[in-house]
Design brief:
The protein is elongated. It has eleven helices and twelve strands. The strands form three sheets. An eight-stranded parallel sheet has the order 1-10-8-6-5-4-3-2. The protein has two domains: about 5-325, TIM Barrel (Alpha-Beta Barrel), CATH 3.20.20.80; about 460-505, no CATH class. The longest helix is centred in the middle third of the chain and has 16 residues, at about 175-190. Helix 6 (about 175-190) links the parallel strand 4 and strand 5 (about 200-205). It has helices at about 50-65, 80-85, 90-100, 120-135, 140-150, 175-190, 240-245, 250-260, 280-290, 315-325, 480-485, and strands at about 40-45, 70-75, 105-110, 155-160, 200-205, 225-230, 230, 265, 270, 295-300, 470-475, 490-495. It has about 500 residues and is of the alpha/beta class.
């Protein structure tokens, strides 16, 4: 537990509950960077280990002009193993505060030995370290992990065996560095074995070499999550530049963490041997802005503090001005002078009635649409005459018959049917004698031994002679039928008496 009266030389019994100070813009002149460009970095302050420390957080926030305090920091008592196991009532208060907002961080310093501030000799410390390396204290760390998980703070940052390179605490490293590293590994392994844990382990030595160079105590990357450093305004290093460049100083700390792929932290920092030193506060804030630690907390009680300790007014002003968020100044309202409104006289416009001229309604004549009857035109169906194919008549030879004189009398009009008279071939035998089937128009006086051979297919009948008693009219059966049966004519013979010479037409 941190106790102001026992904060001697270079070791801090009371540790910082400080959170990450605003970092980002350089704070060489904090007044010019009011509010801090690194205001998104988690910051806090160690205000007290128990419920009073939780209760003071809102007051610190108001003092900083509403700055949000995101880190709560306290210590477990190292007088007995019961305290190291977390059997203390104030853990419930811190767990409740942590659970109120998701972005808060709970940092807990955990001793590695009981009787941690009782000035145990190096020989006894070496014996305790060897026992721890052999697993004699594993169950204590397992119980602490179960306690924190049960309280709902499984993501607590564990600052295990802090300032191990110094001479004050029983959990110091110098008496047996190799077994001390083995002991650290066993403690971390025991806490990580508890289901539900999400702890991060912070390896945080003093700035400077002190009793041993702190790099000799580094237990390994597999069991360290954060590389921290406690740094107060005291020797070694007369100036802040000395604190940066000295062996195992601020610069080596940053370089070492980067080489091992770890983030950095400042669990404890503040004033000490040189009283009210605003230049140290200004330079430390600037360093934090430049290197952006995961978190950082200032130890705020005398002689280290800047809020509860009233003996450091200049440092308090620098700290407060740097971290108070920028707020707009009061807005002075601009007086509004009313503009006089001069009424504009309204001159009524005379309304001249427009005469209404009726539009004459001209009736639209109804013109009847004439109904024109549609003539029914009969379409005659063409009558195609059936072709009459004449039956072939066997030719009969003309046989002369004796000339018998007959009385002349008017002969009836008859329509002779033209019959083709074939000419008998000379080689054909003479047919049997018989009367002719067709009467002759003139009595034959002498038989013709050979009849003329008719044309087989006359195309056009010969025109009748003038004043002939026979009148013929050609028949047209169409192109295709005429080709089939040949040209045909219809002939009519008239007889008005012998040698009348009369042609009626």
């Amino acid at each position: 537990m941190p106790r102001p009266g026992r904060r001697l030389a270079g070791t801090c019994i009371g540790t910082v509950t400080a959170g990450l100070l605003a970092s980002g813009a350089a704070l060489a002149a904090p007044e010019a960077h009011k509010g801090g460009q690194g205001s998104n970095i988690a910051m806090g302050a160690y205000l007290d280990y128990g419920p009073s420390g939780v209760a003071r957080i809102p007051s610190l926030s108001r003092w900083l002009g509403g700055k949000e305090i995101r880190v709560g920091h306290t210590y477990l008592p190292g007088d007995s193993w019961a305290g190291i196991e977390g059997n203390v009532g104030f853990l419930e208060d811190w767990a409740e505060w942590r659970q109120a907002k998701d972005d808060r961080m709970f940092v807990l310093n955990v001793p590695m030995q009981e009787r941690n501030e009782e000035r145990v000799s190096d020989r006894q410390v070496a014996r305790l370290i060897r026992a721890g390396a052999e697993g004699a204290y594993d169950q204590h760390f397992r119980k602490l992990a179960e306690r924190l998980v049960g309280l709902g703070v499984p993501d607590t940052v564990i600052v295990l065996g802090w300032e191990m390179n110094g001479t004050t605490y029983t959990h110091r490293c110098a008496p047996d560095p190799e077994n001390w590293k083995a002991y650290w590994k066993r403690a971390v392994k025991a806490m990580r074995s508890v289901p539900g844990q999400e702890f991060r382990f912070d390896f945080a030595p003093n700035r400077g070499k002190d009793a041993i160079g702190w790099t000799e105590c580094y237990p390994g990357d597999d069991v360290v999550d954060i590389v921290g450093m406690d740094s107060y305004d005291q020797d070694p290093g007369r100036s802040f530049d000395d604190q940066v460049s000295q062996p195992y100083g601020l610069q080596q700390h940053v370089d070492f963490a980067k080489a091992h792929g770890k983030g950095i932290s400042y669990p404890e920092w503040g004033l000490f041997r040189r009283g009210d030193n605003p230049e140290y506060v200004r330079r430390m804030l600037k360093w934090i802005e430049q290197h952006r630690p995961i978190y950082h907390t200032i130890t705020d009680y005398c002689p280290h503090g800047v809020w509860q300790c009233k003996t450091n007014p200049q440092s308090s002003k620098v700290f407060r001005d740097a971290l108070t968020p920028d707020r707009p100044g009061p807005v002075t309202p601009t007086p509004v002078i009313p503009t006089p409104v001069i009424p504009t006289p309204v001159v009524p416009t005379p309304v001249v009635p427009t005469p209404v001229v009726p539009t004459p309604q001209i009736p639209k004549p109804q013109i009847p649409t004439p109904q024109i009857p549609k003539p029914e035109v009969p379409i005659p169906s063409p009558v195609v005459p059936s072709p009459v194919v004449p039956a072939p008549v066997s030719p009969s030879p003309a046989v002369p018959s004796p000339e018998v004189p007959a009385p002349v009398s008017p002969a009836p009009v008859e329509t002779p049917v033209p019959v083709p008279v074939p000419v008998p071939s000379p080689e054909s035998p003479a047919p049997s004698a018989g009367p002719s089937t067709k009467p002759s128009t003139k009595p034959s006086t002498k038989p013709s031994p050979v009849a003329p051979k008719p044309d087989p297919a006359p195309t056009t009948p010969p025109p009748p002679p003038v004043n002939s008693k026979q009148w013929c009219m050609p028949l047209n059966f169409g192109e295709w039928l005429s080709k089939l049966i040949g040209a045909q004519s219809l002939c009519v013979k008239f007889d008005w008496g012998k040698d009348s010479g009369f042609w009626p037409f």
